[in-house]
Amino acid sequence: MLPATATTSAAPPPPPPPLPASPGGEPHAALLLSLAYLPLRELLSCAGACRRLRDAVAGDPLLWRRVAVAAPPLARRLTDEALLALTGRAGGTLRSLRLLGCTRVSDAGLLRVVERNPGITEEKG
């Protein structure tokens, strides 16, 4: 038996309306804008989530203008070839490259990246 002060709970509120779909089932524009704020590891993970996100991430050279690799396991696994492929996503517009603990990247590999990205600069921080 319920106490005299108890009331029955109201029906749950209706769910919010869904966000409008992007044309062709593309990822929502807000999601695409947020990709620019992801660290490299999360950006790579996002690209592996589904085909549409992979295409969105791979097709936007602005996402790859600043590459920073500073934490394991990515730092330990990065090779010259992988670095060249990763920085190649910038389409020659790479501006900043920070590598810490990347023992498998050689000076020759770095030189190839710089040759393909003539606008690369060093950030002071």
Describe the structure.
- The chain has a two-stranded parallel sheet.
- Helix 5 (80-88) packs parallel to helix 6 (107-116).
- The protein has a domain at 38-116.
- It contains 6 helices and 2 strands; from the N terminus they run αααβααβα.
- The protein is elongated and about 65 Å long.
- It is mainly α and 125 residues long.
- This is F-box domain-containing protein.
Shape summary: elongated
Q: Assess the beta-strand content as a share of residues.
A: 5-15%
Separation of the first and last Cα atoms: 68 Å
Q: How many beta-strand runs? A: 2
Q: Provide the succession of SSEs.
A: HHHEHHEH
Protein name: F-box domain-containing protein
Biased composition (Pro residues): 11-21
Region (Disordered): 1-25
Pfam family, one: F-box-like
Q: What attributes does this structure have?
A:
single chain, 125 residues, mainly alpha
